[in-house]
Structures are given as C-alpha cells and as structure tokens.
Amino acid sequence: MTENSRLRSDRWFGTKDVAGLIHRSYLKSEGFTGAAISGRPVIGICNSWSELNNCNVHFKALARAVKRGVMQAGGLPLEFPVISLGEALMKPTTMLYRNLMAMDVEESIRSYPMDAVVLLGGCDKTIPAPLMGAASVDLPTIMVTGGPTEPAVYCGRQLGAGTDLWHYTNEFRAGRMSEKEYGELEAALIPSAGHCPEMGTASTMSCLVEALGMSLPGSACIPAVDSRRYAMAEATGTRAVAMAREGQRPSHILTEEAFDNAITLLMALGGSTNAVIHLLALAGRVGVPLKLERFDQLSRKTPMIANVRPSGEHLVEQLFHAGGVPAVMKELEPLLHMKAPTVSGSTVGENFAGAEVFDRNVIAPLDKPWQGPAAIAVLTGSLAPQGAVIKQSAAAKHLLKHRGSAVVFDDIDDLIARIDDPNLEIDASSVMVLRNVGPKGAPGMPEWGQLPIPSRLLRSGVSDMVRISDARMSGTSFGAVVLHVAPEAAAGGPLSVVKNGDSIVLDVDQRRLDLDIPADELKSRLAAIRPRAPRYRRGYGAMYLDHVLQADEGCDFDFLRRIPGEDFETDPQGLVGGPLGGW
C-alpha cells in the first residue's frame, strides 16, 4: 500500500471514476491545480473566527499561519467555518451552545475529505467544543488556541479583564468609585484581541489542552498579539501534515493518564471550575470513565504553584515569560504520567525535559507552593447528592467552614429584583442560594453563580459571603462560591426545596454541603415539588432540554457520549456513506 492510498482524502480525489472527476473539478473551480490536489494530505482548518467574538477576531491571520505550515510540509490546507461562541455578547450563555458547536465541528469533519484537522479556539467554549467534536470523529487532530489579550492598564496597574472588573464593580456599587472612573475603566479594560488575560476559563482550557497533549508544547500562554503565537500556528500546520501521514488520532492521546495530567495542572494553576465540566464532557466523548471523585483525589495531593489571578497575583502573560505550561509541568513531574503521548510525537516528559522556571514570583517550587493542595474541592451531602465544586483557592478562608441561614432566590430575575432591596433580610453570615439556573433550569447553566453581594453589605465592608447555586461562574471570578450543585433544582434536586431561614452547613475540609433539616422533612419537601414549565418547546432549545446531562457528567448530550462497546478502530476514517456523496 502506498502512502497516498492510506489517505482518507484519496477516497474523494484519488479515484479515476466519475466521482473522482467531480470532486477534483469542483476543487479546481477554486483555482487549485492538479498538482495542488494530487496525493497531498488535506488538512482542514476549523476556524471559529467571528466579529461577534473579540477573543477570536484575530483568527483569520492565525489560520493563514497554519496554512503556511501545511504547505511547507506538502499538505493542502482547506479552511472551513463553524459557529463561534462569544462569551461576552452571547445570551443567555455560550454554554447553551457548546454542544451545538461540537456537533457542527463533528459533522463538518466527518463529511468532508480531510486527513487531519487543526482546530482554532480561544474564547471559553470555542476550546472544549471543537475538541469534543473532533474527538468523536477521531481523525488526526491538533489545536491552536488564541492566546490572552494584552493586559489593560488602569491607574497605573495591570488588570485582568474579569477578575479586576468584579473588584471595581463592587467598588462602584458600594459608592466608592465614581461614574467617571467607571467609564475610564470601560475604555481601558480590553485593549486588544485575545481572551481574558488572567487564569479564567479560556486560559485554563488552553493550558489543559497542552497538558492533555493536544497542542504543541509551549503554545498555551503565548499572548494573542505576540509574533510567537503565529510562529506556533505555522509549526502546528506542519505537524498536522505529519500526523495525517502517521495516523496519530485523539483516541491515542486522550487516555486516563492524559486526563490525570490535565486535572493535576488545573489544580496547580488554580484554574477555572468550568474546566471540570469540560473535561468530564470530553472524557465522555472518548470513553474515559472520569468521575468527579477523581478531581478531588488529584486535588488533595496537588498544591497550587502558579501565582496567577484570580487565585494569585499575576497574569497569564507573566506566566508565559516565567516558562509557561512546560515550566509548571516540569515542577509537577513527580505527580504526572511522564510517558503519556502527545501530538508533538514525543511524550509529556520529553516535551518539557528542558523547561526552566525564569521567575519564582510566578511559578513556585513544588515543595514551597503558593497555596496548599485542593485549589478546587468537590463537595457532596444532602444538598448536593451528586456533587458540587468550590474554588477554595480564590475564597475567603474563614468561610470555608461555615453555618448560616439561607436567603433564597428562585431564579435570576428574582435575584436582580431583590438583591439591593433595603428590606432584604440578610447579613454577612447568611448563605445566599440561587436556584433554577442550572443546565435545564436557566437553561444552559450560565455564569451566574458569583451572586453579587448586596450593596449595603458592600458599603459596610463585607467582601465575601457563602453563595450556593446550580449555575457556573466565570473562571475570572472569586469568592466562597459553591457551584454546579447536582442534581440541579430544575431536575428535582434538593436545592429546589431550600427555604429562607434553613440552616446550611459548608465544611470544605470534610467535603460536605448539607441542608441541616431532618431527613424526613427533606423527603417530604421533595415529594411535594412540581416542575416548572420548560423554557423552550421547539428547535435546538427543546432538544437541549430533552438531552442535556447534569453537571457531574459534563452537561453533554446523552446521545453524543461514546457508546459502550463502540470502537474507533472500526472506521478510523470517520467516513459516512459512499465516495459519491449526493451524486
């Protein structure tokens, strides 16, 4: 068998029948010659560029850099668009559409003549979504992420787009910041293309893709505007051609060991809680039996060694200059699976063998970490039978063991209407509860979990409170915030029956989250609940409500998870139907 006959695209372009003639003719209509098509690996470039998505608005140039690398290696690059999910502008939440984007990517790859694919992602969900879709097809796949924006500078201080925004917004709501100053903050906050510059969800997922072995080493933290980001994209295009010829696929890389490495890095970075949901979803696509318990097991033995906001002081640009992900993983070496394969063709250990730490103010040694283990803790108990998470590395420590009376908000509209009501019965010891904002309840599980502290408490000096919800929160956020409570209220979980004044117990050391009422009373309340009417009755929204899983299973659709017994090796080309397609 010749090298070219092993190419999937050869089934479109390499035959001498009418189907081959049609396929070659239509591609030649774009100006390609026979020499450009014949026998070359076709590399699809999956581009989530959109002018509605500032994080990804530089992706046209990034795609051109990938194309240079593909052509230098003798491949044929063909770019194709997919839906783009812009976190800032898309309502109610990009999470509602993560699975739709994954389906878009999966079906595009499956149905077109590609031998390998390069994924371009940057904004929060445009990293996990295409990776989920590509993993389900299992063609050779490699990813280029977009990089963090330039740091804003306001009043002489570098800002994180999200973390510092929440701080200043609290100052504004407390009356300690003027409208003029708030307007100046607005003008300075986002100075360039790229995703949030702190360890929010986008930066976290970019780093975890590198830890999983699905992007080239050293790529995650390069700033969006840095020329090295484009040089890395070019190198990625070159590597994609080699992967097409070698046949290295996601199922070879996305193993249990790879997920362990990614979770370990997540904890060491003090990364986003959203990564828990995305890793669970991705694992479900490749049949890795990842559970919430594994996050807690690895969290307990992994200290936080990266000093990056919101859990630390610096931004991702400083992490890049300090050595980036390779330097962090070099420090974590005793905790990692060194022999795990990666898209580079080398193992994890080989990838960072020569890595160095250039700034100990940013990356600490493993034996002298910035914080102890368990940056993210997994909680269970009578209020969260299937689990919940808290990012304790970014919370006020005195609130990690707390008993307080519940102040309940039934949905986001109720919260907005009452949070600054001067008659709201609430104090610093209260536990704020927001429900019906989970996968089915909101729907889409928006980033509403960092409930705003009432303005009168902010004015009195309160800066953190225990807050509990079935929502998510931005990876740039902070506070004693318990998230992803499962099952959610809309699915009949205990959160749905909490009443004002109920005692709630949080004990992070013991990993407990309990509604402190008698078991019989809880059972009686649950038996009496009545489901709310669904928000959607048609279209994608209705499909979402019918098939979305709970947070502890990654909020993927039930029909998109890998079927037990399914074997990727059965059809590694991922080709559906015959080569003639619709002809």
What does this structure look like?
This protein has helices spanning 10-13, 18-28, 34-37, 59-72, 98-111, 128-137, 163-173, 179-188, 201-212, 227-246, 250-253, 256-269, 274-286, 292-300, 316-321, 324-331, 348-351, 412-418, 455-459, 519-528, 539-547, and strands at residues 42-47, 76-81, 116-121, 141-145, 152-154, 157-159, 303-304, 371-373, 376-381, 384-391, 401-409, 431-434, 466-469, 481-486, 503-507, 512-515. With 583 residues, the protein is an alpha/beta fold. It folds into three domains: 40-150 and 192-351, 3-Layer(aba) Sandwich (Rossmann fold), CATH 3.40.50; 151-191, no CATH class; 375-528, Glucose Oxidase, domain 1, CATH 3.50.30.80. The chain has an eight-stranded mixed β-sheet. Strands 2-1-3-4 form a four-stranded parallel β-sheet, with helices on both faces. Helix 6 links the parallel strand 3 (116-121) and strand 4. The model is unreliable at 1-5 and 572-583 (pLDDT under 50).
Q: Could you list some keywords that capture this structure?
A:
alpha/beta; Rossmann fold; Glucose Oxidase, domain 1; 3 domains; 21 helices; 34% helix; 14% strand; disordered N terminus; disordered C terminus
